[in-house]
Design goal:
Layout (H helix, E strand, L loop, with lengths): L7 H21 L2 H30 L4 H4 L13 H10 L20 H33 L2 H4 L2 H23 L9 H4 L6 H9 L1 H14 L1 H25 L2
């Protein structure tokens, strides 16, 4: 996903504020705790597959770093970053433990820059694919499960779990496409920038880190990605609806 390297004290403060605000929500609205619990499976799936996709893409390009570090795994414990996981639960966006790669090991059939772009886009792409798969499961249950099951407590919880997983995967994927360091999007756009723009981008990377922190703390990031999340969600659900004739 990305290498979260700036002062973590700021992050701890943000986490504390988010946790306290969430606790207040629990006191005033018991349903908030249920919503948090419903989101946990989606968070585990989204982060695990996102990070696995980064490592797998690098491995297919010839870099064994992720494999040697045990990151070509679908065990959530191999990929979860405590702070990033809490952020995804409480703020709706976050990150996993960064997958280490060595671009110098990539196949010489493509440039290292393009290799990095492929590895970077693999994570968000995996999240969108997962959202589509779970949307198919969602539609299949709605179409073929009986009304008795859908109206039951178990059926209701399953539907909520699947819907939450779809939402979290789309949110995580879109968030990481923002073209600012340290997000995946900053590496994805590199091959498409003119040489001078690339140099300026690299020489002034710290500015983009500051911008990222500002839009993250202020909630501007959510405003930026909300239209994309809504558009992708509607597009996936419409396509799945056509497939199932719904």
């Amino acid at each position: 996903m990305f290498n979260f390297s700036f002062d973590k004290r700021i992050v701890y403060i943000i986490i504390a504020i988010l946790v306290l605000s969430t606790l207040v929500q629990y006191i005033s609205n018991p349903g908030a705790l249920f919503g948090l619990l419903i989101g946990i499976p989606g968070v585990l799936i989204a982060i695990t597959f996102h990070e696995f996709a980064h490592g797998f893409a690098a491995y297919k390009l010839g870099d064994n770093t992720a494999k040697n570090e045990g990151r070509l795994s679908l065990n959530p414990l191999d990929h979860l970053d405590p702070i990033g996981t809490l952020m995804l639960l409480f703020a709706g966006f976050g990150w996993g433990k960064p997958v280490h790669v060595n671009p110098t090991n990539y196949t010489r059939k493509i440039s290292m820059e393009k290799g990095e772009a492929i590895v970077s886009i693999a994570g968000p792409l995996m999240n969108i694919i997962l959202a589509f798969i779970f949307a198919i499961i969602y539609a299949a249950i709605c179409k073929f499960a009986g009304a008795e099951f859908l109206e039951s407590t178990v059926g209701h919880i399953i539907i909520l779990l699947i819907a939450s997983t779809i939402s979290i995967n789309i949110g995580l994927g879109v968030f990481n496409l923002i073209p600012l360091p340290p997000l995946d999007g900053s590496k994805i756009i590199m091959p498409f920038l003119p040489y001078n723009a690339k140099q300026w981008f690299r020489n002034n990377e710290y500015i983009f880190y500051i911008i990222f922190v500002v839009i993250w703390i202020t909630g501007i990031a959510s405003i930026i990605i909300s239209p994309a999340i809504t558009g992708i969600t509607n597009g996936i659900m419409s396509l799945v609806g056509m497939i199932f004739g719904m």
